[in-house]
Amino acid sequence: MKTLGRNADNDLYIESNSFAIVSDLDAQCAIIESILQTQQGELQFDDEAGIDYFGTILMNPNRIQLWEGIVKSKIQALSFVSRIEDFKYKYVVSESTLYWSMVVLNQDGEKIIITDRKTTLSLADRKSGSAGMPRPI
Q1: Which of 9, 29, 89, 100 has a CA between 20 and 30 Å from the CA of residue 74?
Q2: What is the pLDDT of residue 123?
Q3: pLDDT tens readout for residues 108-135
Q4: Per-residue buried b or exposed e for 72-108, using 16+ beta carbons within 10 Å of the residue's own CB
């Protein structure tokens, strides 16, 4: 399995005069991270991709259990995923920040470990109509 590589700012980067490519566990990790960092409706070519943050976490009151179910469903649907072993998260309303970690077992029995991620969410982006929500920081 291969996919485009991303740097710490979640941007594609160039390596040897071409877009960087990651493979195997790095590719699987990048795909999982991409799901959690993409706002549903953000991608013009696939409006079902990503997570509905506006209809779950950013609701008042928030619907964090619904968000968790959507995330788990999308991750479990990936062809390389056997099961989610651990998923921890915390949404800090005062910071508009979602902190999360995940351990996933792939079909080969290898663990994909994603730790200490945070994503900042903002309703201002929805009001202005800008894409790119949520954005990692």
Answers
A1: 9
A2: 64
A3: 999 999 999 888 887 655 544 444 444 4
A4: eebbeeeebbeebeeeebebeeeebbbebebebebee
C-beta contacts of 92-99 below 8 A and 24+ residues apart? 93/62, 95/120, 96/120, 96/121, 96/122, 97/121, 97/137, 98/57, 98/134
Length of the chain equals 137
pTM for the full predicted model:
0.78
Average pLDDT on 89-105 reads: 93
Cα angle value 31/106/33 (rounded, 5°): 20
State the pairing for strand pair 18-19/14-15.
antiparallel
- Which range has highest mean pLDDT (23-32, 41-50, 108-117)? 108-117
Q: How far is CA 119 from CA 23, 34, 82, 129, in A?
A: 24, 11, 25, 19
